[in-house]
Amino acid sequence: MATATAATGATSSNQQQLATYDDDDEFQDACDAETASATCALDLETALAEAKIAVDLFFNNKFNEAEALMKPLATSSMYHSVGHSVFTYLEAMLTFEQQHIAAASEALKQCLNVCNRYRKKNTLTETIGKTFKKVNYDQYTDLEAHAELCSAEALLLKAMLTFIEDETLTSLIKGGMKIRNCFAMYKECNNILNHRQWESESSKLHFESGVRMGLGTFNLMISLLPARIIKLLEFIGFSGNKQSGMQDLITGSQSEGIRQVLCVMTLLGYNLIVCYVLSHKEGDLRFCDELLVKQLKQYPDGVWFLFFKGRLEFMKGNLDDALKWYKKSWKSQNVWPQFHHLCFWELLLRLDWRESLLFATYLVENSKWSRTIYTYQKASIMCMLKTEELHSSEIRTIATLMKEVPKYKQRIAGKSLPMEKFACKKTERFFAQQSFLYVPALELMYVWNLFKILGKHFQLADGVYRIVEENLTHYGERVNSKSNPAYSVFAADNKALLLLLKGACLRQMNSPLQATRCLEDVIAMYKDIKEDHYLVPYAIVELALIYIDQGNKDQAIRALEDAKKNYSGYSLESRLHFRIHTALIELKGKSYENIPAGDE
Fold first, then answer.
1. Among 158, 241, 145, 122, which Cα is nearest to 193's?
2. pLDDT (mean) for 245-249
3. pTM for this structure?
């Protein structure tokens, strides 16, 4: 009778674990669950050792060898299954091709199935007891602990894939619930890490690197969100503690655990990309330099670290050095040519429009990440060339590209991408103004927050300033001639754009008084602007950054609050709100870290 009760409890617990996944996720055992560890899989230490070899192969560009090591045991060993799933997931993200997305989805379903075999099976009594008393984590074996961690990792990837697999509201909700469950699993893994006696120090080391990576990334990324979103997420169980997240990732990056390199990648991505796109602050470039010295010593030809080295030099304003490292990156491997696209995207911003056009053309023809953005980007670069520099066929090509931009518009997680919507609006303007736009490539540089580089590279800043000044002169001539009524319809929009770019450029050139005059002129034009209403709140934030540079904290806060509360419904609003959020946190000393990470 006791045996029957225990079996019933275990069955109930198993059902709860399966509920962590989707109703759609089918679990097909490659071998019987009861004998899996005995007959189908390697022991944990061996599996970890092989997974570490696969990681080293992958980051040395030996992608096929890494995949060949992981795939044969992907149906029985959880670390081989996670490795195989990560490789298929990366291929799906790089190619955006439906067959690769479907393959990644199947691999992750299989991985969740494999991990579930090794997770601790609680009896009904144990499940009820967890509600009333402290859990005894010593009841977990090392294998069961790692199964929890691997499940969390696979579930996170499955959640991210859900957003691009299916655009329905149901899938969006499912993806959100998976991420919530994943975060809860990482917190439980943190409890396991800190409240049990480990059978193997090596096993604990690898486990800890995974916990640090998972919780650190969650806390860091959530902390970047606007306050109102963070408060909602905290209500449903998330936390957004930036300091805790950074410390976890730094600790993980200094360990010898299997996920050490992933902690490094997250830190590099945050400091070299996220900081520059979503905030007004600089990343920690010195820290990134230190990380890259170590990683390039270990992976001298690794495409990822060569790319990050190029990005580091780019953000320092060393454009020639950046080009050198980007070229090394794309020449280091040909298995996944999509890696090259990362470098080509960066190389568009050197103000050599003919050279930029070559890279833009390659992206349009070969990349599937966002055909809408890439097509508009190519057309924008061609618009930067003077009419006398264009062949008649190129003028026709610009019009063709602008017509094609809306055709490729996509939806992810049920929503259009803000940058794609922005590009589509600009193509409408192009035709409304009889095939003309003012400095569209510079406008793209600005909304991608790349004007930061101008302050570190005088020649580049001076080049941008001269282009804007020439176009302001051109604008005045067109308005005064009154030869084309279409110009007068959007006169305020065009002038405001040029003045915003001029003001932003002058701020980077340390000319705050001139910059302020330009930005105040933009704000004063609010009622005259017909479509580009985003220009005014962006100008207000630029003014706030000038006040910050001048040490005028109170005035900066008032300007940021003005942009945040009094303007809405404009293009790229969320992008600006991220920057406002990080600036206000810095100025007010305010954090949204009420829920600590880790222990419950």
1. 145
2. 95
3. 0.83
What is the CB neighbour count within 10 angstroms for residue 77?
26
Kindly report, residue by residue over 76-94, the tens digit of the pLDDT: 999 999 999 999 998 888 7
**Every domain of the chain and the residues it spans:** 44-121+138-197, 349-437, 440-592
d(CA 495, CA 432): 16
253 pLDDT band, cuts 50/70/90, is very high
Query: Do the beta carbons of residue 248 and residue 219 sit within 8 Å?
Result: yes
Joined together, the tokens standing for residue 216 give 């650190």
CA distance 232 to 242: 17
Are 77 and 47 spatial neighbours (Cβ–Cβ below 8 Å)?
A: yes
Whose tokens are 């005045």? That residue is 476
Q: Residues 491-547: pLDDT tens digits?
A: 999 999 999 999 999 999 999 999 999 999 999 999 999 999 999 999 999 999 999
CATH pick for 440-592 out of 3.20.20.70, 1.25.40.10, 1.10.533.10, 2.60.120.260? 1.25.40.10
540, 562 contact by CB (below 8 A): yes
Cα–Cα distance measured from residue 578 to residue 530, given in angstroms and rounded to the nearest whole number: 25
Q: Residue 302: which region, alpha, beta or left (left: phi > 0; alpha: psi -120 to 50)?
A: beta
Phi, psi angles (nearest 5°) of residue 552? -90, 80
- The tokens for 456 are 């570190």
Q: Which residues contact 63 (CB under 8 A, 6 or more apart)?
A: 57, 87, 333, 335, 336
pLDDT band for 133, please (50, 70, 90 cuts). Answer: low
Q: At what angle do helices 553-565 and 535-549 cross, to 10 degrees?
A: 170
Separation between Cα atoms, residue 512 and residue 495, nearest integer Å: 20
Question: Can you read off the two tokens belonging to residue 88?
Answer: 């298929």
What is the rounded CA–CA span in Å between residue 84 and residue 147?
16
Q: What is the DSSP letter of 272?
A: I
**Other C-beta atoms within 10 Å of 166: how many?**
17
Q: What is the spatial distance between Cα 235 and Cα 242, in angstroms, rounded to a whole number?
A: 18
| 292-301, 365-374, 574-583 — most confident range | 292-301
* Mean pLDDT for all residues in the chain: 85
Q: Give the three-state DSSP class for 415.
A: strand
Place of tokens 């919530």: 180
- Residue that the structure tokens 């990366």 belong to: 90
Q: Which residue has the higher pLDDT, 160 or 357?
A: 357
Please give the structure tokens belonging to residue 273: 């990309």
DSSP bridge partners of 415: 412
Q: In this structure, what token pair is assigned to residue 535?
A: 């220009």
Contact partners, residue 81, CB within 8 Å, separation at least 6: 70, 73, 74, 75, 107, 110, 111, 114, 115, 150, 154
Q: In angstroms, rounded to a whole number, what is the distance separating the alpha carbons of residues 77 and 114?
A: 7
Question: Residue 210 is encoded by which pair of tokens?
Answer: 């995974």
Token pair recorded at residue 247: 């410390």
Query: Residues near 252 by Cβ (< 8 Å), separated by ≥ 6?
Result: 208, 209, 212, 213, 216, 259, 260, 262, 263
For residues 55 and 49, what is the distance between their CA atoms, to the nearest angstrom?
Answer: 10
| Cα–Cα distance for residue pair 430/532, rounded to 1 Å | 13
- Which 3 state secondary structure label does DSSP give 416? strand
